[in-house]
Amino acid sequence: MSNRIESFADLIAPIGEETFFADYHDKKHLHIRANAANKLDDVMTWETLSALLNMTAIWSPHSLKLFLDTKPVAVDKYCRPAIDRNGTQSMQPDADKVKSWLRRGASIVANDIDTLTPGLISAAGALENRLGGKVQSNLYCSWDQHQAFPTHFDTHEVFALHVAGEKTWRLFEGRLENPIASDTFQNLDDDFHAANRGEVAEEVTLKPGDILYIPRGQYHDALASSEGCIHLSFGVTHIIGFDVMTLLFERAMTEALFRQNIPPNEKDARAWIAEMTSLLSEFGTSDEIWSAVEGFREDFEYQRGGF
Prior knowledge:
Blueprint: H1 8-12, H2 17-23, E1 30-32, H3 46-53, E2 64-68, E3 71-72, H4 75-78, E4 79-83, E5 89-93, H5 95-103, E6 107-110, H6 118-131, E7 134-142, E8 157-164, E9 167-175, H7 183-186, H8 190-196, E10 200-206, E11 211-214, E12 218-224, E13 229-237, H9 241-252, H10 266-284, H11 287-299
Antiparallel strand pairs: 1-11, 2-3, 2-6, 4-5, 6-7, 7-13, 8-11, 8-13, 9-10, 9-12
């Protein structure tokens, strides 16, 4: 019997949508305990993961990574030379080498998997349709007391769907305000994280069927507390103000005023800037820009399946 997640309401049940958006969305984390033993079986199982990993030619060092106690395993330690599906020389994960690392406690990170099965497509689509953001999914398979990543925050909101085993998550009080995927936020050092993560706000243990929602910017980490843990991380990236500014920039470049050289004296330069600012304000409240924003929103999704 299929238990496919067809809607956002299916995914977060028994929490209602009204409660989620009023109390948690972009506000604070939420642990949703499983209300059905097989709630996520259609999304991922051990058998599904094994079948996907056996599709050797779809994996590369970019799409399949190994980490041991927060450190990445070097590509040449788990991959071998191969010809990829584009007919070019590449490196490809080697099953025997990967299994050898797993026996030592290494974690598998399988990236960009949300198009690989009907269940993954359905779950990603349910999130995308309700939240209006682009959704991408990675899989994490880890082992007892081995941690893939140190304490960190994400530049997107996270829905962690727990599939197998048990994993303990620590949610910290620290939360950065609206971080984005730019060098400013992606190259912060350990001292910055230590100074900004704060104290542990809550510690939760996820079991099969559980879901953990983490808003963008909140510090967290996770440690497997049983052998063989699998969880899926669905990251949701939304349209931000910078995207709208890009639309305004493109519109502004059609006006000669914005292509004009800056006037040589301060008085004229200040007047020129004021005129541009006024015109930008007109653009920002126009139906033309709103139509462009609506079109951008309609196209702001990934294409999955359809065949």
